[in-house]
Amino acid sequence: QVQLVESGGGLVQPGGSLRLSCAASGTIFSFATMGWYRQAPGKERELVTTVTSGGITNYADSVKGRFTISRDSAKNTLYLQMNTLIPEDTAVYYCNAVLIFSKITYWGQGTQVTVSE
Fold first, then answer.
1. In the sheet where 18-24 sits, what is the strand order?
2. CA 36 to CA 51: how far, in whole Å?
3. What is the mean pLDDT of residues 29-47?
């Protein structure tokens, strides 16, 4: 069983930055594709970015050049650096892990990000 715990959300003004963290309960980065998703009010959950076990990253067009995914294997922690935030980035952000072989999927509880004056 994998547990994912997000932190780092909050209220930020447009143009500001936030860094989200996702602490995993075990050493899973070598065995999983990790990612960040978000869900805005009244909308479906959408992909923000992923990183494979081999380090290949993928970003939604809406966040390319502004968001960066990274991981610290020693700390079992995934990060999402968000720069130049806009109101459209307002959502609950979820950490996600998909195990390579079993395809079992785990989700964190989510952290709220609000971009507003």
1. 4-7, 18-24, 77-82, 67-72
2. 9
3. 96
Q: Which residues pair with 58 in a beta bridge?
A: 50
116 vs 100: CA distance, rounded Å: 38
Residue with tokens 């715990």: 5
Cα within 13 Å of Cα(100), Cβ side: 9
Question: Residue 8: which of 109, 117, 88, 113 has the closest Cα?
Answer: 113
Per-residue pLDDT of 8-27, as tens digits, reads 999 999 999 999 999 999 88
Tell me the three-class secondary structure of 9-24, residue by residue. CEEECCCCCEEEEEEE
Residue pair 37/48 in contact by the 8 Å Cβ criterion: yes
The tens digit of pLDDT for each residue in 47-102 reads 999 999 999 999 999 999 999 999 999 999 999 999 999 999 999 999 999 999 99
Count of beta carbons in the 10 Å neighbourhood of residue 54: 7
Reported confidence tier of residue 1, pLDDT bands at 50, 70, 90: confident
